[in-house]
Write a structure and sequence with these properties.
Strand order of the largest sheet: 2-1-3
Helix content: 40-55%
Number of strands: 3
Shape: elongated
Number of helices: 6
Oligomer: single chain
Distance between the termini: 45 Å
Strand content: 5-15%
Order of helices and strands: EEHHHHEHH
Length: 151
């Protein structure tokens, strides 16, 4: 099971108010770190990885050692795979989202979203609906609507 971070944005109305992001090892980032970063729109991180890959390529041509280039490429992919999701979460926090919790017992994103809706009882129409009296509350003295069956 993966851990999902729940982020909420109270300020923006154009963007989604809730984000549920997986905080786990990114397998695709291990194999393809630069395209993964570009897909996630982490431009600065992608530029740094591009510079590191160019430096590794330059060193492998100069020293003619394939092993060092291979090990350093795998290490770079491992760093991106381990830290990439936290970079995505920090990017969302810089955009105005704040962390309101996490879901630890979900197998996929859909299940995590259902657990979030259940756990935090997010209801955007609650402010516009009139307040209702609980069923178990006794009627107020002189309340004749209760006898007629009206709420």
């Amino acid at each position: 099971m993966a851990r999902y971070i729940v982020l909420k944005n109270d300020l923006e109305t154009k963007r989604e108010k809730l984000l549920v992001l997986r905080d786990d090892f990114a397998v695709l980032a291990l194999a393809f770190p630069l395209p993964w970063l570009l897909f996630k729109r982490l431009w600065l991180h992608a530029f740094v990885v591009l510079l590191i890959l160019a430096f590794i390529s330059y060193l492998s041509e100069e020293t003619v050692t394939f092993g060092i280039a291979l090990v350093s490429n795998i290490a770079l992919g491992l760093i991106v795979a381990l830290e990439g999701q936290s970079w995505v979460i920090n990017k969302a926090k810089r955009r105005g989202y704040r962390e309101i919790g996490s879901v630890n017992d979900a197998y996929n994103l859909q299940e995590a979203e259902l657990l979030v809706l259940d756990k935090y009882a997010i209801d955007e129409d609650a402010e516009t609906r009139p307040a209702m009296r609980p069923v178990h509350q006794a009627p107020a003295p002189g309340d004749t609507n209760i006898l007629l069956g009206r709420p």
